[in-house]
Design a protein that fits this description.
The protein is of the alpha/beta class. 18% of the residues lie in helices and 24% in strands. The chain is built from 9 helices and 18 strands. Strand 12, helix 4 and strand 13 form a beta-alpha-beta unit.
């Protein structure tokens, strides 16, 4: 690492000082990377539902912290042991890693690497922080903090982008949001030709015949159809439960698999109830501050199954490059997800935009 890149950088970042407090753009200090880390100059970031949860003390009350786990940036400097990326490479962060050697990586049933795990304590792998403000340490968000002009991340948690990709900005959505939905249909349920699913991205590409979207926002119908949705249910337009409405349009059978994306505790059981007897599967991919969720025991006894999922079951080194290739080849339209763009100093405006009915994804220009 050159001497010019081994210095502490002072830059702007979005700091969350406490639960319920407005986000503030502050000057922070970002340390140089250690031996197995990289420092990234962020170009774009985006907002995920989980970022908002973390501002409300999920899963732990860690403050002050710099939020953001979706983004795309350029490697500014690398530690001496880093081999896979170099200065100038465009990368996206991932919040789980893949060593390809541990029990989980080799099991074929889990994407939760034991060597490079999901980090929830707001610190780097060595238990320290690379960011501070006026002498006070800042917590990271998972492995990174993308709502900052610069961030440090372990090199095992970044993925290099093909420089021929025409629009890097939309690649930010692949760090979590889009990839989680796509991966859930691909890896967690393995959607097959003719399957029926509810509330999902990516199922059409896997061959599902019926894809049912469920949302109280009628504007989402148009967006869902772009990604292959065949039916749309607006629960606010009926007195019936979501599971009843889904069964009505599946001849009373229910779907093969249902994906619960909101994190609303009561909807987990609705997702389970909406699946077929004897073989239906519900996958929970939405995070929540709720400590538990009510589940009907009879639904499970009748042969349905319930599963949780992180990052849609995707492995970051084995699976995510395949999605990147599909993005590069324009096999799906990520630009359709983008509805608003803001500058980093307008972050609180961006949070308010998420409440608008026509908002899907907000891109932050760093």
């Amino acid at each position: 690492m050159s001497s010019s890149n081994s210095q502490v950088i002072t830059c702007k970042a979005v700091v969350c000082w406490g639960e319920g407090e407005p986000l503030k753009v502050e000057d922070i200090e970002v340390e140089p990377p250690k031996s197995d880390e990289v420092r990234v100059k962020m170009l774009y970031a985006s907002i995920c539902h989980t970022d908002l949860l973390c501002s409300k003390a999920f899963p732990l009350p860690l403050f002050p912290r710099v939020l953001g786990h979706e983004g795309v940036g350029v490697v500014e400097s690398v530690g001496e042991e880093v081999k896979e990326v170099k200065e100038g490479d465009v990368v996206i962060p991932t919040y789980i890693g893949e060593c390809k050697e541990c029990e989980n990586c080799t099991s074929g049933v889990s994407n939760l690497c034991l060597k490079y795990p999901l980090i929830i304590n707001g610190l780097m792998l060595d238990g320290s922080s690379r960011m501070s403000i006026r002498g006070q340490n800042l917590y990271h968000l998972f492995t990174c903090s993308t709502w900052s002009e610069y961030m440090v991340i372990n090199a095992y948690y970044v993925l290099k982008l093909d420089p021929s990709i025409a629009n890097f900005s939309h690649a930010s959505f692949l760090s979590c949001g889009f990839s989680t939905g796509f991966g859930a249909a691909w890896k967690e349920f393995n959607v097959e030709n003719g399957s029926s699913v509810a509330v999902v991205n990516g199922a059409r590409m896997q061959g599902a015949a019926k894809i049912i979207g469920v949302d109280k926002n009628k504007w989402k119908k148009e967006k869902g159809e772009v990604f292959g949705m065949t039916d749309f249910i607006n629960p606010s337009e009926s007195d019936k439960s979501v599971s009843e409405l889904i069964k009505e349009i599946t001849n009373g059978m229910g779907v093969d698999c249902s994906f619960e994306c909101t994190g609303v505790a009561t909807l987990a059981n609705e997702a389970l109830e909406s699946t077929k007897l004897g073989k239906g599967k519900a996958v929970i991919i939405g995070a929540s501050n709720d400590g538990s969720m009510p589940i009907g025991v009879l639904s499970l006894l009748l042969g349905r199954s319930l599963k949780g999922s992180i990052f849609g079951g995707l492995k970051t080194k084995s699976d995510l490059p395949i999605i990147l290739d599909k993005y590069k080849n324009k096999e799906f339209q990520l630009d359709e997800l983008l509805t608003h763009e803001v500058q980093m100093e307008d972050i609180n405006k961006a949070i308010e935009l998420l409440k608008e009915p026509d908002c899907v994804k907000v891109l932050i220009k760093i």
